[in-house]
Amino acid sequence: MAKKSEITPEIVAEHGLSESEYAIILDRLGREPNLTELGIFSVMWSEHCSYKSSRRHLAKFLTTGDRVIQGPGENAGVIDINDGDAIIFKMESHNHPSYIEPYQGAATGVGGIMRDVFTMGARPIALMNALRFGEPTHWKTKQLVSGVVAGIGGYGNCVGVPTVGGETNFHKGYNGNILVNAMCVGLAKADNIFLSAAKGVGNPIFYVGSKTGRDGIHGATMASAEFDDDSDEKRPTVQVGDPFTEKLLIEACLELMATDAIIAIQDMGAAGLTSSSIEMADKGGVGIQINLDKVPQREPNMTAYEMMLSESQERMLMVIQPGKEKLAYDIFEKWELDVALIGKTTDTGNLVLKHKRKKVCDIPIAPLADDAPNYDRPHVKTEAREVLEARDIHETQDYNDALLRIMTSPDIASKRWIWEQYDRHVMTDTVDSSQSGGDAAIVRVHGTKKAVAITTDCTPRYVYADPYEGGKQCVAETWRNLTCVGADPIAITDCLNFGNPERPEIMGQFVGAIEGMNEACHAFDYPVVSGNVSLYNETNGQAIPPTPAVGGVGLIPDLEKHMTLKGAKDGDTLILIGDTTGWLGSSIYLSEILSREDGAPPPVNLSTEKLNGDYVRKLIRGRRVNAVHDCSDGGLAVTACEMAFASGQGMHIVAPTNGKTHGWLFGEDQARYLLAVEENSVNPVIATAKAKGIEAQIVGSVGGDRIKADGAFDVSLEKLRAANEAWLPNLMNGDA
Amino acid sequence: MQTAVIRFPASNCDRDAAVALEKVTGRAPIMVWHRETELPDGIDFVVMPGGFSYGDYLRSGAIASRSPIVRDIKAKSEAGLPVAGFCNGFQVLTEAGMLPGALMRNKNLKFVCRPERLTVANANTRYTKHYAPKSEVTFPVAHHDGNYFADKDTLNRIEKEGRVTFRYVSNPNGSLNDIAGIVNKAGNVFGMMPHPERAIDDMHGGTDGLGLFKSIIESI
Fold first, then answer.
1. What is the pLDDT of residues A677-715, one digit of tens each?
2. What is the CATH number of the domain that holds B103?
3. Count of structural domains within chain B
4. Chain A residue with minimal CA distance to B9?
5. Pairing relation of β-strands A358-364 and A651-653?
6. Which residue of A has its CA nearest to B200?
7. Which domain covers residue B103, as residue numbers?
8. CB pair distance less than 8 Å for A420 and B113
9. Do the chains contact at B56 and A336, CB–CB below 8 Å?
10. Is B195 an active-site residue?
11. What is the ipTM of this complex?
């Protein structure tokens, strides 16, 4: 062992470890760790890697189901989509790096989530993202938007995986902490899924991909701390992405996976070589010995500490079948990738590192993984807000102006400026990218007639107002969006973005949201198969609005029967499924027209959701509808406008004049769908709904070139579209 | 009819090109690795696919244009072999000197992906015979470096010789003369920034790209 280490309390604190955590380390080792060992413990026990504040709550989630092949615990979740095909998917945050260095932070977020998916044997077929920025007028917002968007595009476009959907919100609550959540969906064969558990003794461990440099050291620790005014000084901890190498890695790994050479494989993500080697060893119950001199290095004189904590991108670790080494070498050399045999599996149960012929680390693996702290942080329930009645909320006297303001508000305005920077068509299986107002992206399973539907959703203002109802709503909205395109919703991934869990009110948001989400998962038989938690999203003590982003995936068994909101035809009748009470609490109307963010959010009745959604899906499959759109942000009026933009048809909405017109048009009641239905189907659609106990009513008609609501607004479709399209370009070009 | 698609490191529309070629010819193309020094025997038509060969490092298409296989393709194209490059493939062809001009960074400096309307500037080439003169087609574009540039003399020459095959209706990238696609003097080498292979299936939102593949295949 190297000479006695001098670990001072300051060094322990710098590593983000508490005194009690350090005491556990001393106890488990029976001695003082050296600096390399301390570094390894610190990243493994960071919030980011150990989920120490969230683990016990995540354990509550529904994670099993008929179609679940692999739930949480591996690199990504796996679901069965029939015919021996499987979909592998996950969403992950890259919030802290993206705030500090938006281009590289976002780019490496995309790269990381793609690696999680192809590591398991899937070819990535779609990317999604969920972005939250600060208020549009904040001095940093434009720079962050343009950097993040360029970074997402720069990476995904180069690798050649279409970015098919996402959502973007702006709110002052994200001024100091933006959220960049990226999701990747891959296609694999159900009988050829690769896991990370190392097996056997003496099996060779290969390192493949980019060389290891000094970038990203302590990235996982950074992602587990709050920001302050000096956060820009953390820029060196942000990694730099190389999508070219990623593309080569995908092709090389998939080529090697087509053989039987791989025993286990793991990408080097957060905490790099440390977490990848320890996770592989821990899951397989083996030890690992690595000779760090063999690790391909980008810079001279790197220490063991630096190599183990580097988060250089585009690197993979794999355990290869003995005797298959040459096969692996040949494939990686064909793709011009660095490859090195750096170690072997052992029966010691320890992680042993050698560097410059010295043993620089020898620690038992089990405590690193199993004894990681698991905190039951105190949490207080978020106080319930008052339920607001529409009749008590000021009714606008100028509906034309109100509609225009809502359609040009940050969350509703077109995001074309963003999504036109993403290649949405590469691989030529994109049937519909949800970027253009659709409910979910539709990506064909190559060479088949089936497709996967994908969506990401979260309404942070609801979660902030009521974590439990808001949590239910996030899951319900993904389920609804998948339903809108004719898919059977199957499972979700989540990315839980919250503030500092050491504050009971933040922990209360976290626990409440999880309980709400989980209730929705059970109601829809819609399990969580993968996910990620991002805590400490705070700057100077100001936490972000709680943002549990949910990524939903569903299956469209027959593409002939998929649905979008584009197909509304002149003369169609508009039918609204679901009950409208005119719920304006926590609505877009309230925030944009009245500058208020109060009131309880709309409750989500899960059995009504299920009943209504199942009916809409049945109508789609029975070819009873021309267009379907989920009625959510901004209510019926916004839903109708979006259908008008997509179809090029005007919309006429019938509206009551009972002092609740604003609630009718802009209320955000849940479990609702707007359908465009041909004349001869109207009666059967409504009659069948009534027979099932489902609210269904005629709310207007399709046609013409205006968007109007009786006694409220009457505006030109093209003018409204132009305004809706202009908001973001104007902001980004500095004219806003 | 045997076609081939060249695969460079980080080509990413190679499969898309293969799907299009198989759809039109009824036969899967041979996928040729960039390190090969010669095309297999009996290749009738070569496609340089889109993507980010070598990560667009140095300049888009620059490193790929020095690949061993490109030397052979260039020699054979001079003997008449039809070669088409789409997007990054077009960039490789200009870098290899098989087509004139260069593709610079888009004028607004941003990557752009959208269906783009094009007019058929010359319907009397081996690549455009299936289209009516001056007709309009829609192909998706997806590029960062699609801003076509050539010096004045070259530009005048290719215009005079009718070598501009497609023009943008609303120029997305700053290309001179709205140029979206060109052919070489002999008419057998063709390059364009838009993606005809992304417009061959109703699911793509249109099948305008089929005409281009049919034109060249039928000319062989």
1. 999 999 999 999 999 999 999 999 999 999 999 999 999
2. 3.40.50.880
3. 1
4. A248
5. unpaired
6. A428
7. 3-219
8. yes
9. no
10. yes
11. 0.97
